[in-house]
Amino acid sequence: MCIGGAQTGIMGRIRLSDLNEPQKKAVTTTEGPLLILAGAGTGKTRVITYRVAYLIERGIDPANILAVTFTNKAATEMRERLRKMVQKEAAAKVTMSTFHSLCVRILRSGISRLGYKSNFTIYDESDQLGLIKKIITRTAAKDEKLDPNLAKALISKAKNSGVATSPNDEESLLNAVSNRYHTALKTANAVDFDDLLTLAVQLLNDHPEVRQRWQSKFRYIMVDEFQDTNRLQLDLVRLLADKRRNVAVVGDDDQSIYGWRGAEISNILEFERHFANPTVVKLEENYRSTHAILSTANSLIRHNPRRRDKKLWTSKPGGKTIRLIETPNDREEAQFVTEEIARRNADESEPWESFAVLFRMNAQSRVLEENLRRLHIPYRIIGGKSFFDRREIKDLVAYMTILVNPNADASLLRVINTPARGISDRTIELALRQSVHHHTSVWHALRSSELTNELSSRTATSIETFVQLIERYRAQIAEPRGDAAAIVGRLIEEIDYASELRRSCKSIEEATERDGNIRDMLRDLAQFGSRSIKGLAGFLDEIVLDQEREEEEQQDDKRGVTLITMHAAKGLEFRNVYLIGLEEGLLPHERSKAEGSIDEERRLLYVGITRARQNLTLTYCRDRMKYGSVSACQPSMFIKELAPECVERIDLRKLLSTPVIESTAKNRFAQLKAAING
DNA sequence: AGGTGAGCATTTTTT
DNA sequence: ATGCTCACCT
Q: Which of A154, A188, A313, A357 could connect to A409 by a Cys-Cys bridge, CB 3.0–4.6 Å?
């Protein structure tokens, strides 16, 4: 089977004997549509990387292979694992990217056909929201109201469902806002996250020569987490794979938990409709959890209608039963969980990192945090505000953006008077009005005499100075082989952003920290410059599409107990898992009940359960603090769906009264035994 | 231009 | 309880 290993870039490290039978089939089925139903913990990533390596071994040019994921984290992990299996050069040629960065790549080379310039700017969600807010204030009549967040969600939903937004549809405020929003984006030569997909699909669909080019580039396509794809993502895959139909998708309908943001579970449930006569492989052997955990998970998910039949199993025997614990209220729930973690860390030497507490809502983490701090237990909360939400980073990114594309209104407006340079809100509003009136960008308006004629000479001078500043640095950035990091560094020096920070921060420590963030970002830019030729624009693409990266900081620190939502926990695993708040109204969440998406809530719990390797504890409360007042709770409807033989209901009183000595004694015994056996 | 208080809603989150 | 927005005030 090892045909010409050396020249195809293989290192002879692929041992198919490492795989079980279904995995082997998934890896070696290279031609035609392939649906890999990969249950939780069944070695999904392994199969994908082996499959890519196998393709390369079979002589496929790595440059013809595309593997698409949802997150940069997943793409990076996959790339790293592939690097260990094939030669570095071969691994580097494989395209492993997120849907969004793939679309950026496609659009950067062809978007001119759609009337955008190829240096378009990508607006992130806050840019998007800011723009929508501005538009609403200028569009809404006195008695009209529209929640910007709602508008944003609806606009996004319309785009993602693939419905072409028809202009002048009806005279609703939302429609007016939506239309103006799209116009504003186009004027700014900007696209939002949804546009990346919409426009890429449009480009491939309407321009056969472009489509053909990408079709012959990507001859073998793999899609990870296929159950999370939305309509546009499916369209994209179809367009790319249309000719050769070498599409392998990997996913698990039982882990589809993102329906609320547009994921179409039908993409995987009805895969045959999109790609006729696929090979279907089921990965059901689980290498993660105990039998008890898997049985519990299976018993729950069985209650969902409309699913691909499958059942996780393990060759490992037994495992401890799942504990179900009722507590009087959420405070005691948190107290019980944290104190038990402390005890098991002390008695059983379970490292803090082996514990995770999973919950439905972020608000639930608060009580936990208080308790963990009280007991001096190290912990990390996954989720929360990202690096990119920080004011100073947003300012810096905005400055960098207008150096690449000064027509990016959202960025320009952010920094036009930061630091204060004598351009007032009134002036900005005037510039904005003119730009809308003439269908140009704000940048353009700033430079027109029509604006400056309306202003005092002092304001006009302020604007002129700002325009000059930006132009000067734009010119430097535009120079080939310029050092972007140095140029941007000089810019923030010249505008004396450090003083701005000192002025606006409450403490000098805060100012220093924020300044440190700026420096970190500039350091990243310098690093990017040394590994890529794509310049500042490329750097901006990378950071706007990877807002989650921040791992480095946390890695060195001991990470501690993990507090995480069940959504964010997908794909992770822990030896010891506590699933808290299993109550009606929380899980399933009230809103989901109202919307009729109980099935998805059930899958969410399923995802939570299958995170556990060894020990799983479920808890619920009789009372819970909600919105500042205590309300009574009912146990989740899902509890009675769990296999009773696997679940042990435990009285909290009894558990708490268990003498500490007993557990310690048991532990001593275990240690003694281990010492003898070892 | 920036700070303060009333009013209000309150799931999940990546790109 | 809390955090966010918006209107109004210094």
A: A188
User: CA of A627 vs C1' of B9, distance in Å?
Assistant: 10
A130 CB less than 7 Å from any atom of strand C: no
What is the spatial distance between Cα A545 and Cα A428, in angstroms, rounded to a whole number? 29
Residues sharing a CB contact under 8 Å with residue A431, sequence separation 6 or more, in sequence order: A442, A445, A446, A451
pLDDT for residue A6: 43
- Rounded to the nearest 10°, the torsion over CA A494, A498, A501, A506 is -150
Query: Which residue is nearest to the C1' sugar atom of B2, using CA?
Result: A504
Measured CA to CA, the distance from residue A676 to residue A477 in angstroms comes to: 68
Residue A160 pLDDT: 76
| Contacts of residue A521, Cβ cutoff 8 Å, sequence gap at least 6 | A393, A396, A397
pLDDT for the residue numbered A2? 43
Catalytic member of A194, A195, A225, A264:
A225
* Partners of A576 in the β-ladder: A355, A615
Q: Which residues of chain A have pLDDT under 50?
A: 1-9, 167-168, 554, 556, 659-665, 675-678
Q: Judge whether A195 and A165 are in contact, CB under 8 Å.
A: no
Does the nearest atom of strand C lie within 7 Å of A148's Cβ? yes
Q: Which nucleotides of C are covered by protein (CB under 7 A)?
A: 1-2, 6
Instruction: Decide: A151 and A132 in contact? Cβ < 8 Å.
Output: yes
Q: Which of A8, A23, A29, A44 is catalytic?
A: A44
Q: Which residues pair with A648 in a beta bridge?
A: A323
Question: Per the omega criterion (within 30 degrees of 0), is the bond before A419 cis?
Answer: yes
Buried b (16+ CB within 10 A) or exposed e, A146-164: bebeebbebbbebbbeeee
The pLDDT score that the predictor gives to residue A665 is 47
Contact A422, A459 (CB under 8 A): yes
Distance CA A488, CA A60 (A): 42
Q: Cβ distance A289 to A612 under 8 Å? A: yes
Chain B positions with an atom below 7 A of a protein C-beta are: 1-2, 9-15
Longest dimension (CA), chain A: 91
Residue A171 burial class via C-beta count within 10 angstroms: exposed 0-12, middle 13-18, buried 19 and up: exposed
Nearest protein residue, CA measured to C1' of B15? A545
The token duo for A427 is: 């002036």
- Look up residue A316 and give its DSSP letter: S
Tokens 């299996």 correspond to: A85
- Among the listed residues A24, A28, A30, A45, the single catalytic one is A45
Instruction: Bin A496: left if φ > 0, else alpha if -120 < ψ < 50, else beta.
Output: left
Q: Give yes or no: A224 in active site.
A: yes
Residue with tokens 């929640």: A147
Contact status, residue A41 vs residue A289, Cβ threshold 8 Å: yes
Residue A255 falls in the annotated catalytic set: yes
A588-631 pLDDT, tens digit each: 999 898 888 999 999 999 999 999 999 999 999 999 998 888 99
Say whether A45 is catalytic. Answer: yes
Backbone angles phi, psi at A98, to 5 degrees: -80, 165
C1'-nearest nucleotide to the CA of A546: B15
Report the amino acid identity of residue A645. E
Helix runs in A84-124, H state only: 88-93, 99-110
As a rounded value in angstroms, the CA-to-C1' distance for A515 and B7 is: 36
How many helices (H) and strands (E) in chain A?
33, 16
DSSP annotation of A436 = H
User: Would the Cβ of A425 be found within 7 angstroms of any atom in strand C?
Assistant: no
* d(CA A624, C1' C1) / Å: 13
**Residues paired with residue A579 on neighbouring β-strands, in sequence order:** A358, A618
A611 among known catalytic residues: yes
A364 is catalytic: no
